[in-house]
Amino acid sequence: MNDVEAIRFAQRVLGLAWADLPPRHRELLEAIGAEGWDATVRPLGTYADELLRSAGYWGLDLPARIGRDRARGLWIPELRVVLINAVHPDYEGLDRPSRENALARVAWHEWGHALSLHGATREDVAAGQKLLESLPSELADTIRLAGYLRREYTHEVVAEVYALLMVRRRRGVIGRPQWVSDQVDELIRRVVGWIQ
Amino acid sequence: MDPVRLPPGYLLPDEMTMKDVLRIDAEILASEGIDPKWPGFGKRQEETEPDSD
Questions:
Q1: Cα separation of A188 and A178, whole Å?
Q2: Is B42 part of the contact surface with chain A (CB cutoff 8 Å)?
Q3: B24 — contact with chain A (CB < 8 Å)?
Q4: Domain span at residue A36?
Q5: Has residue A110 been placed in a domain?
Q6: Residue pair A88/A110 in contact by the 8 Å Cβ criterion
Q7: Are residues B39 and A170, on separate chains, in Cβ contact within 8 Å?
Q8: pTM over 0.90, yes/no
Q9: What value of ipTM does the predicted structure carry?
Q10: Phi, psi dihedral angles at A81 (to 5 degrees)
């Protein structure tokens, strides 16, 4: 898949993943400025910096740009857009269904992250470590070992659980998963307006 | 004007890729008795509650 094909493929998946969201979530994401999406072949920190500067913002400082260059997805609230790196090396070697699954999951993670940033309270953010420890261990490790700051844990927990709820919903499965703790369940219900 | 402060983006540990994420997802889904195979974006199955133990 060349770059043009990769962008077209990712844009198609992003559109389908957006359409798959519950209507109330789309409305909320529109209200908080996360309704746009785009796919790029550029490292996301560098691309976001360029987009921000071209829109009249001051852009990102160097550490912020470098840190986001390795991201698979990135929400830019100022521009109301979620960006996806369509050619991240992760996608090499994935068959088309797996690539579609992976891209959709990144998008759902980013939209869940936006919902969390909008709705989580200071107390929720302070409870991040405890929320993280209540996740299935391998899921918790993907957050703990990724380099996030502790104050970012709550939003990452919401984003990961939200993405998995969407993955389940795509399979026709709703309801509270067995692996979601009472505290995460309450948080998701309150912040996202889910679990169904 | 100050530099824009963005969310951190979707990051994974250095030794992990999205292939690992899909594997972990599949294990979690399978633990609930859910078919982990990606169904694509065709018509969604009728929504069901997972079986309770």
A1: 14
A2: no
A3: yes
A4: 1-94
A5: no
A6: no
A7: yes
A8: yes
A9: 0.93
A10: -140, 140
